[in-house]
Amino acid sequence: MLLRTPRRSFLGAAGTFALGALALAGCGSDSLSGSSGTASSSAPAAAAEVGADAALTAMLPQSVQDSGVLRVGTNAEYAPNEFLRGSEVVGMDIDLMDAVAAKLGVEAEYQNAGFDTLITGVQGNRYDAAISSFTVNAERLEQVNMVQYFNAGSQWAVREGNPDGIDPENACGVSVAVQNGTVQSDEDLPARQQACADAGQPAIDVVPFDSQQDATAALVQGRVQAVVADSPVVAYAVQQSEGLELLGEIYDAAPYGVVVPLEQTQTAEAISQALQALAEEGAYEAALEAWGAQDGAVDEFPVNPAP
């Protein structure tokens, strides 16, 4: 899953996600298309009060120490976790990564790119790290290091009143929008498809999109009957749009992880220790609370947790 999981009010303080109008308030077309490009975060408020730790800085690659910049890949199309407000990348993950970077004694510089290109970008040294609601799973752990920082799950949404009588546990024959490259598209829906086939039922009509905004817009417009994504994203979308409602319970809760190159074990450990320090200082919880995401807080920040 991209799981990009749970549960609550996601009224992010840094911006408005107006799905009813199929646009981010104040954003141009780039914010919906997910065009690549460097964008800065406009929300270093929590990071501004974080003190750098020289010992953690020394654990970073020499190139990062010399430049003072941590190049971070993200797919800024997943409000409230990461999205564009104008030309700036904002969101829960961004606030948190800004604070991590400050603790490491560097500045995070964000590169907006397609979600399914981020891990290869980390592997190819295009980014020093990536944060984009990546669910920790076995396949990803074979490719990169992942540092746990949040816990989330999947949830469905339908049009208000559920006019088609959709049941996620019996979705054979239903048209479902999903973002490419996510846990939902790669694991969840294929497993449901197989169950439909085994039962001799019609296949789920999986309608893939490159961005979550487009997937949710398809439901708003009535082009699909349901959408499935990470629960924070679905909850936020429903609250910020008209005519949608959440369906069923959150399921398959799992941790999110910051992605770091497989060979950069010290960098991963530095990020882990930075997160632990932020938790002890209160900055970790503050970054989550700004987006109503405190229910997904974790107590530990291990490198490569068991999926």
Kindly report the spatial arrangement of strands forming the biggest sheet: 12-11-13-10-14
Q: Main sheet, how many strands, which sense, barrel?
A: 5 strands, mixed
Distance between the termini: 12 Å
Oligomeric nature of the chains: single chain
The portion of residues assigned to helices is 25-40%
The average pLDDT score comes to 86
Q: Please mark out the parts with pLDDT under 50 across 5 or more consecutive residues, or reply none.
A: 1-36
Radius of gyration: 19 Å
H/E element order: EEHEHHHEEEEHEHEHEEHEHEHEHH
How much β-strand is present in the residues? 25-35%
Q: Count the strands?
A: 14
The helix tally amounts to 12
Instruction: Decide which structural class fits the backbone.
Output: alpha/beta
Instruction: Please state the overall shape, judged from the principal axes of the Cα atoms.
Output: elongated
